[in-house]
Amino acid sequence: GGEGSEGLASSESGGSGFSLAASALPERRRPGGSGGRPRYEVVRELGAEEVRWFYREDRKTWKPFIGYDSLRIELAYRALGSGGGPGEPRAGEATVEPVCVRSGLYEVDVANAECYPVYWNQTEKIPVMRGQWFIDGTWQPLEEEESNLIEQEHLNCFKGQQLQESFDMEVSKPVDGKEAIHSLKLSRNHVDWHSVDEVYLYSDATTSKIARTVTQKLGFSKASSSGTRLHRGYVEEATLEDKPPQTSHIVFVVHGIGQKMDQGRIIKNTAMMRDTARKIEEKYFANLATHVEFLPVEWRSKLTLDGDTVDSITPDKVRGLRDMLNSSAMDIMYYTSPLYRDELVKGLQQELNRLYTLFCSRNPEFEEKGGKVSIVSHSLGCVITYDIMTGWNPVRLYEQLLQKEEEELEERWMSYEEQHLLEELYLTKQRLRELEERLHGLKASTIAKPPVLKFKVENFFCMGSPLAVFLALRGIRPGTSGSQDHILPRTICNRLLNIFHPTDPVAYRLEPLILKHYSNISPVQIHWYNTANPLPYEHMKPSFLNPTKEATSVPESESVSTVPSPTTSPVMVRRHYGESITNIGKASILGAASIGKGLGGMLFSRFGRSSTSTPQTMETGKDGAEGDDKKTTTVGTPPLSHSSSGFLEPTVELEHRIDFELREGLVESRYWSAVTSHTAYWSSLDIALFLLTFMYKHDQEDSDKSNLDAI
């Protein structure tokens, strides 16, 4: 019990060595005491509900399994022992199935006291431990070896003895001057029983002996001066009712570039997103009987690609930097390579389908009850996910280019011979297409081609996404309809949402690819998670990007005199985002928005807008802060319907907004955040609330409707 002893020695005065705050736990109820539990008047073996199982992920703190999980692990443990008594179960007498825990994401191997993930690979197993005796204040378990020895000794000496009548008396009565009625020596500690219910652990370290001698001479109680109070049985009884709700919505989390560098990163990032979402769920969605689960999709490590060819041609100078670039930027180069693109697409597609099939096999009711699937993709992962969903292929683009060349050829003057050859080529191609169609028809009749993905995508959330650049380079241009179908048909995916940090250097806007004038309309600002009564996103009115009070490089007269017609995009004084590669979306290569007033004054700051409040939040008008809100509204960002400054309302608006922007922190350095913002999405409470708002939307509407019906 060496490891446990060191932990205890550091926390003798109330458990300060442990990170689990005592205040976060309910008060201890004596087994058999208050709280509606059966009252045991005598000492007997611990019930399965009094034992608590723990797991440890960070090498420091043991975390308790919820009651439902703990009770099932304990029952499996007892089945494994086949009546082996309260100590260690006798090995080899029985085999038990692994116990599914933590909302079905992990399984516990009871025999080996290990926990491992079901849906992804993890090299390090997570240790689990059976808790019987616990430290006062922190309710951390004693190490199992010590715990078993203390429990055995306790039963040997006190089994069948009467417990004290009043638990309240036991807590308040001091143990000053009481001598131990029984002691047990452990390797580096000893345990004293001052009564059946008063058990203390003492460290036998030299410093502790000196401290004890001094405090005893001063008249302090031996027990309270240097001992750690122990409790038998956990603070809360484990019940099967203490279980998580059934998963009704799964979210596949897809990583982007650079995963080769740190293969476990997407698992850690997804865990961060899951933990953050749990906090938001508890705060805002606790009344809904549904549950969203996040699953990491690690598609990169299984791919061989070029083997080690790129590594072999990499010079040795600044090797570390080159390796980093090979592991990150190289993925983009692989994806644009006709040789490896298909391998990347297949890698992600197969992993998505594998995870979905595995999840459904373990949760048979998921599909029956209409479970939904969403995808959250990051960086290059957005582009690959999009291509899988839409079935886009560079060959199609090549065919379009050839067709365009043919049309251009037909337009210019040609000799008779050229015309004759062109006609022959045209007829031959037509014949070839007919043969291909017949062949495909035969194949289709014999083999029904399965869909690329085994599920319909409800929401596709892009985070820090370069998708807009890829689409623009493929020739997609703004249209005249405000429908998402222009870039992603609703039949494939119900809702597309593009989330970015204003200084993310990899992120680009999608809305201007659907309707051009949206390059002058600001992205929707994502609510801070602690905003009181936020305006629902669908009720937010579009607002123009350019604050008219800011200095710009365009003369004022020029901007006012040019009044656009209702059918054209409004001519505006633009905040200089910098020209993007394709001049579409107005998001510079330095980010989806400007990164401050440096850079020679060419990029204009958005600090004024983000540090006060935004036009979208001004529209609440519900609470007492309405007056203050009006004062802080930024000048020069009128709603779309405003006709001042020569701006007319465009005839077409988007059916649904697609671009959503995180609010900048008021303190962070823009230049630093340009470096860090691309990976800042995972632990953001604002993003967690945003994701859940859209995923719980229908459930909330149904819940509100049923409440109204009840009224």
From TrEMBL:
Coiled coil ranges (UniProt) are 399-438
Q: Which GO cellular component term is one of those annotated?
A: cytoplasm
**Basic and acidic residues biased stretches:** 620-632
State the family named in the UniProt similarity comment for this chain.
Belongs to the PA-PLA1 family.
Asked whether the keyword Flavoprotein is assigned, the reply is no
Q: Where is this region: Disordered?
A: 1-39, 548-570, 609-646
**Pfam families attached to this UniProt entry:** DDHD
> So which domain of life are we looking at?
Eukaryota
Which keywords fit this entry according to its UniProt record? Answer: Coiled coil
Which terms in the Gene Ontology molecular function aspect does this entry carry?
metal ion binding; phospholipase activity
The record ties this protein, via InterPro entries, to: DDHD_dom (IPR004177), PA-PLA1 (IPR058055)
Q: Where is the DDHD domain?
A: 453-697
Question: Which stretches are tagged as biased composition: Polar residues?
Answer: 609-619, 633-646
Q: What is this protein called?
A: DDHD1 Phospholipase
Q: Is the Cell inner membrane keyword given for this protein? A: no
Q: Cite the record's Low complexity compositional bias ranges.
A: 1-25, 552-570
